[in-house]
Design goal:
The complex is a heterodimer. Chain A has 14 helices and no strands. Chain A is mainly α. Chain A has a single domain, classed as MetI-like fold (Orthogonal Bundle). In chain A, helix 2 crosses helix 13 and helix 9 packs antiparallel against helix 10. The longest helix of chain B has 34 residues. Chain B has a domain of 177 residues: MetI-like fold (Orthogonal Bundle). The chains are: A mainly alpha, B mainly alpha. At the A-B interface, helix 1, helix 3, helix 4, helix 5 and helix 6 of A face helix 1, helix 3, helix 4, helix 5 and helix 6 of B.
Chain lengths: 285, 285
């Protein structure tokens, strides 16, 4: 018996040690270092609040921050609005045999690298792009128009790149919704809007929250889509972090920006979880 | 409204039109990218100037296809090496974590579990900069106190692998945990009763049962690493990975060689995705 117990202890450490090393060396300590550097003066290493003061003093910084947060919420909302009917169609309307094929079709584009997908939009939409060529040649446009490098295109790109992370969990919960409940409501004379409002959307809430958290986090932290599709005017906060660290080599300022972004994403995710009375463990399952 | 209920023709066709538009939205950028890889032109744009394979096999003087493009080939090889390393590291860490959290009990288990899932909601950019700063601080410390320069701690291959593994391990852990939850413990007990020790049980019973999920998780780890941009950009040294190399080219204006690479990536990931999905591995995030 004693021998057996020792074996179990040994097994525990075999699993515990690598995981503990991973979480402390790659997650906890780096983030503490990020926090420490954000309060440190570059040359002297003394405590300072200048990095955070600079953020509030320079309108370009905090405006970009607010803009990034606002657009991320908008994108999350748009993704929900599109994902609901798409999921509903695949889960409840189309024949089951076709649903499987459609599901694969939905998944495949998202396995492709974000860069390739954004590049596809660029050659479609730019001034010398495919769409312009098409519209000019059928005579709808007199001359090509630059469709890239504006906020609307950037938002569309962000919706595109993060769509899947909403569709998959929403289809998951939609599949669990018993058809007979919708049938009963229909038989009792409920309108389509009433059915959506009182049955389908409340039932899908957990899937929407799961998807919403992942989409929000991805959009907030995305770099490729805003810089390539929004161009010089995109003003995304991750770009400010990149500039501070790679271009200006001002790591302390970059650390402060990074920490602010982390605080923002944690705060909003926490608020969503509290409002919907869920916890993170359930969400990531 | 749903399959089993009658609905008006207008509703049916309206919904079908919406879904068709959605799929056009999903596939338009990918199809355009792939088609233009075969256009006999110096720019990734219309008009169509005839079919060519030069962007794949061309060997100068004006068109260098992907198979003769040394920079891109080198970055492809780098990405491949990184992805294999990340796959090994994160499959090991993820599987350890799955065992630790599903089969062991210890103090602070909840807190450690929370730490493990945290990387899913930390933007990749922030993981990148915090790991960069932390390893830089350690490197400086060692240099100042022991007068040794540790190349390992500067941006480059090892740091990219560690940085990517920091969050990809979590994904492997979730995939493996999902299957481990359904494991019937009486199988382990039977093996113990027949005289097997802990290591034998682990190897012959539990790991054998987990094999599909470990392979699935490893495949996902490979793909996520291969495509990662946000974390990698801060950790990469002189050897750029494919997404970073492509980003530079796309940003600064590109030739259709990017389309040729994209074509191969789309083809590769589609085969990969369909193979993975047909194995019944429904989980993608």
């Amino acid at each position: 018996m004693m021998k057996n117990r020792q074996h179990i202890k040994w097994g525990f450490f075999f699993f515990f040690l690598p995981v503990a090393l991973w979480l402390f060396l790659l997650i906890v300590l780096p983030h503490l270092e990020l926090l420490r550097l954000s309060f440190t003066r570059a040359n002297t290493g003394k405590l300072t609040f200048d990095t955070y003061l600079a953020f509030f003093k320079e309108p370009i910084y905090w405006l970009t921050f607010v803009r990034t947060a606002g657009y991320s919420i908008l994108v999350t909302f748009l993704v929900m609005v599109i994902a609901l009917p798409v999921s509903f169609y695949i889960s409840k309307i189309v024949k089951q045999t076709i649903a499987g094929a459609l599901m694969i079709l939905i998944l495949v584009p998202f396995w492709v690298s974000e860069l390739v997908r954004v590049y596809g939009w660029m050659i479609l939409l730019r001034e010398s792009g495919v769409l312009n060529h098409f519209l000019v040649s059928i005579g709808l446009f007199k001359e090509p128009v630059e469709m890239l490098y504006n906020d609307i295109t950037m938002i569309m790109g962000l919706v595109y790149t993060s769509m899947l992370f909403m569709v998959v969990p929403v289809i998951g919960v939609m599949d669990d919704l018993d058809n007979s409940i919708i049938e009963a409501a229909y038989d009792l004379g409920a309108s389509k809007i009433a059915i959506w409002r009182t049955i389908i959307i409340p039932h899908c809430a957990s899937g929407l929250v799961n998807g919403g958290i992942i989409v929000f986090m991805l959009v907030l932290g995305s770099y490729l889509t805003p810089t390539l599709m929004g161009g010089k005017n995109s003003l995304w906060f991750t770009e400010q972090i990149y500039n501070q660290i790679i271009l200006y080599f001002n790591w302390n300022q970059g650390a402060a920006f990074g920490f602010l972004l982390l605080a923002l994403s944690s705060l909003i995710i926490w608020v969503i979880l509290k409002l919907t009375k869920q916890n993170l463990k359930e969400v990531v399952k | 409204m749903i399959r089993s209920l009658p609905s008006s023709k207008r509703y049916q066709y309206g919904f079908r039109l919406f879904i068709i538009l959605y799929f056009i939205f999903l596939f338009a950028p990918l199809v355009v990218t792939m088609v233009l890889a075969f256009n006999d032109s110096m720019y990734p744009a219309l008009p169509w100037q005839g079919f060519t394979l030069d962007w794949f096999f061309g060997n100068g003087p004006d068109k260098y296809g992907i198979f003769h493009d040394q920079t891109n080939l080198r970055s492809l090889a780098t990405s491949f090496k990184v992805a294999v390393a990340v796959m090994l590291v994160s499959t090991f860490l993820g599987t350890c974590a799955a065992f630790l959290f599903e089969q062991e009990n210890f103090r602070f288990k909840g807190a450690l579990y929370f730490l493990m899932i945290a990387p899913l909601v930390i933007p990749g950019v922030i993981l990148g900069i915090s790991i960069l700063m932390f390893s830089n601080t350690i490197g400086l410390f060692i240099e100042n106190h022991f007068d040794i320069y540790v190349k390992f701690l500067g941006p480059g291959f090892p740091l990219v692998v560690l940085g990517q593994s920091s969050f990809i391990s979590t994904i492997v852990a979730l995939v493996v945990s999902a299957r481990l939850k359904k494991f019937d413990h009486s199988l382990e007990e039977a093996a113990y009763n027949l005289g097997a020790n802990r290591a034998e049980v682990l190897w012959f019973i539990t790991l054998k049962y987990l094999r599909p999920s470990i392979i699935g998780g490893a495949a996902m780890a490979f793909l996520m690493s291969f495509e990662n941009f946000n974390t990698t950009i801060f950790l990469v040294g002189s050897q750029a990975t494919l997404p970073i190399n492509m980003y530079m080219q796309v940003r600064d204006g590109s030739t259709p060689v990017i389309n040729a690479i994209s074509f191969l990536l789309i083809l590769g990931t589609s085969i990969f995705a369909v193979a993975n999905l047909s194995k019944g591995n429904k989980k993608i995030v």
